[in-house]
Amino acid sequence: MNFSTADRTNDNAVEGNGTSYLSSSVYPRLDFYIGLGLAISSSLFIGSSFIIKKKALIKLARNDYFHRASEGGYGYLREWLWWLGVLTMGAGEACNFAAYAFAPASLVTPLGALSVIVTAILSSKLLKERLNLLGKIGCAVCLLGSTVVVIHSPKEEEVSNMAELALKMRDIGFIFYVAAVVLVSMVMIICIAPHFGHSNILVYIFICSIIGSLSVLSVKGLGLAIKETISGKQQFTNLLTWFWLVAVIFCVAIQLIYLNKSLDIYNTSMVTPIYYVFFTTFVILASSILYKEWSRLAASDILGNIVGFLITIIGIFQMQLFRDVNISLRHLQILIHRPSSINSSETENGTTYLVDDLPDDTANPQQIYT
């Protein structure tokens, strides 16, 4: 048996003449739970903000006096409900920003999937948008994947102050990664995007995802500086703090430009899951290079992180790609209890139907065409 962990715990619990004191390891663990709580709160706020703003836009659409946002109108700026949505999103982004200062990026970023779940559930309740059976299962799969990520993610930060961060930035691996991101991004923006951006969905998403990985590193570095300043160690006289601030503004601006381009051209149901996969993958890669977040993890925890992330990806794709499929629990009950009613042939015009979609003049309304 290996008693090394227990021995270290006992050594930390007793000092000198046997007087108990709080182990320093408690503080990193406390930071982890603070970051986890902030990340979950961020998803709740951001997911809710989409619903609030959507309600405001629906309200304005009923008013002929204002032009709709899709028509270039700005009437929503006069609607208090829309501003409430903006404030809610601001609160979510603030929580997300703070979460990076307390918890590893490999934990915070994948939990962004929870905002998709919040939006899906609230839209079905408040906007009366239909969340089909596959969407509900997708929500459950996302929750399962997020839980696995939380269980196996790093519990302690590898960088606790700006001096350590400055030292890690000199690592050859990080320098190579940043150089590669800058070079690849320039090639994509200058040479590839103008020719293939409107025909290939991956081009714009790849650009905003790979730049987004640097924005997360910058946010995390800036958050660490603010955290140290609050604790009494002034960091706004440190040039590195201002470097991170400029990097945040620059990277986020580019990220938003190309994300908006992709959303303007392609279907949101395709952009959302692909962007989540690319963005989260690059963030995990970048944070593992700079912050060495997985360096102390056991092989089982590394595997657990990867599996949890893949499970979450499956849930996101399931929610987005099959959200318009007309399927419910009643359809499954019909399939189970009336197997003889299934007819695999197509209608005369080649259209396939589910029960709720069958035309009124269909000979047998109980048939399910697949």
Automatic annotation (TrEMBL):
The membrane topology noted for this protein in its Swiss-Prot or TrEMBL record is:
Multi-pass membrane protein
Protein's cellular compartments: Membrane
Q: Which UniProt keywords apply?
A: Membrane, Transmembrane, Transmembrane helix
GO MF entry, a single one: magnesium ion transmembrane transporter activity
Give the residue spans that cross the bilayer: 32-52, 97-121, 133-152, 172-194, 201-219, 239-259, 271-290, 302-322
Keyword Transmembrane attached:
yes
InterPro entries attached to this UniProt entry: EmrE-like, Mg_trans_NIPA
Which GO terms of the cellular component aspect does the record hold? membrane
Please give the residue ranges the record annotates as the region Disordered: 344-370
**Family, per entry:** Belongs to the NIPA family.
Tell me what this protein is called.
Magnesium transporter NIPA2
